[in-house]
Amino acid sequence: MVIRVNLDCDGCCKKMKRIILKMKEIETHSIDKEVNRVSLIGRFLPADVAIRIKKKMKRRVEILDVQELNNANAAS
């Protein structure tokens, strides 16, 4: 999932990273401060994670892209 959050300063980036690391369902993340984008990978409901980040950051969160990964072993 890719979201857009207004990250003005280094403090905002640190706060975002702290919030993401506390969420157990998120496996991998990357924060791109220049374009205000955060990429999240894991097993979660995108809307639930966006709402949780919005409440903790007190900023608007916009979901830009959601990709669902299909497990090839589950079909066998």
Number of H/I helices? 3
Question: Low-confidence stretches at least 5 residues in length (pLDDT < 50)?
Answer: none
Q: What oligomeric state do these chains adopt?
A: single chain
Helix content: 25-40%
Compute the average pLDDT: 90
Measured by DSSP, the beta-strand proportion falls in 25-35%
Give the biggest beta sheet: 4 strands, antiparallel
SS-derived structural category:
alpha+beta
What spatial order of strands do you see in the largest sheet?
2-3-1-4
Indicate the radius of gyration in whole angstroms: 13 Å
Termini, distance in Å?
26 Å
List the secondary-structure elements in sequence, H or E: EHEEHEH
Q: Total strand count, please?
A: 4
User: What coarse outline follows from CA principal-axis ratios?
Assistant: globular
Report on the architecture of this protein:
Helices cover 38% and strands 29% of the residues. The protein contains three helices and four strands. Strands 2-3-1-4 form a four-stranded antiparallel sheet, covered by helices on one side. It is of the alpha+beta class and 76 residues long.
Brief write-up:
The chain has 76 residues and is of the alpha+beta class.
